[in-house]
Amino acid sequence: MNVKVKGVTLGSIAAASYGLNPLFALPLYADGMTADSMLFYRYVFAILMMGGMMLLQHRSFHIRRRELLSLAMLGLIFSASSLLLFLSYQYMDAGIASTILFMYPVLVALIMWLMYHERADLLTWICIALAFIGICLLYRGKPDAPLSTVGIVLVLLSSLSYAIYIVGVNRSVLKKMDSETMTFYALVFGSMLYVVRLTRIDIEAGSFAFDLQVPNVAWLWLNLLCLALFPTIISLVTMNLSIHYIGSTPAAILGALEPITALVIGVFVFGETLTPRIVLGILLVLFAVTLLVAGRKLLAIITGKSNRTPIR
Predict the structure, then answer these.
(1) 246, 4 in Cβ contact below 8 A?
(2) Which site from 35, 64, 157, 289 is most exposed, i.e. has the minimal number of CB atoms within 10 Å?
(3) How do residues 242-255 score in pLDDT, each as one tens digit?
(4) What is the rounded CA–CA span in Å between residue 199 and residue 213?
(5) Gyration radius from the chain CA atoms
(6) Band (55; pLDDT cuts 50, 70, 90)
(7) What is the pLDDT of residues 30-43, one digit of tens each?
(8) How far apart are CA 85 and CA 97, in angstroms?
(9) Contact yes or no for 296/311 (Cβ under 8 A)
C-alpha cells in the first residue's frame, strides 16, 4: 500500500469514526447531561484508553521541551473546536451547524496559502465545492429553523479552530512525532479546558465545587466510553496519520464523509428516511472524494501526461 492510499484510507476512517458522534451523544443529551460534562468524560476516558494502549505497546511518553508548547496549544485548540460546536447547537439547528462547520477545508487551504505559500490547485477547489454542495443537500432542517448570528459565529470559530489544528499537525515541530504520543498529550491538554469550565470557586465564601454530572442510567456509561474511543481516539490518531501521509488540505476534504456516517446512523438506528435529494447529496460527496483520490490519475490518462507530483 503506497503512501497516498494509506493517507486516504486513514482519513476516511477518521471521518467515519468522527461521524459516530450523534450515535453516542444524543442519548446523553436526552438524559440531561451538559456539553461540558460530556466532553470532560470523553477526554478523560480517552486519555486513560490511549495511555493504556501506549503502556501495552511499550511506547515512550517522553516528549522534548520544545514540543511541549505546541502540544498544549494544539490540544486546547482542538478542545475549543469541540466546545464551540456544541455551544452553537444552543443557538441553531445542529444540521445547519454541521453544514457550516465544513468550511474548514477551505480555511485549511487558505491558511496553507497565506502562511506557507502553498496554493491549492483547481482540482482541490472543485473537490471542496462538490463536497460542500453535497453536504448542503444532506441537511434535513426545518424550513423555519432560525439562523442566529451568535450561532454562526460560534460554528465558524469551531471550523477555524479545527483548521488550525489540522495545519498545526503538519506544519509544527510535531510533524514527525509519533501519532499516538501526539494524540495522548493533545487530549491531556485539551481536557484542561473542561476542568476549568466545570470548576466553581467562590473566594468570598471560601467554597469550591466541581459541577460534573453523572448519567442517570447505568448503560449510558457505555456511551461515554464509546464517545471516547471512536470519535476521539480512533478519529484523532487516524487523522494525524492521514495529515502526515497526504497533507492538510486533502485530509480535511475527506472530512466530507463525516455527515454521511451520521446519515447512515440516522437511517438504520433512528429510523430516518432517505429522499432523492439526500441520495444526490451522498453521491456528490462520494464523487468529490473519488475525484480527490483519483482525479490527477484520470487527468493524466485523458491528457496522456504523467503527473508524479504528490497531493499536498
Answers:
(1) yes
(2) 64
(3) 999 999 989 998 98
(4) 12
(5) 20
(6) very high
(7) 899 999 999 999 99
(8) 7
(9) yes
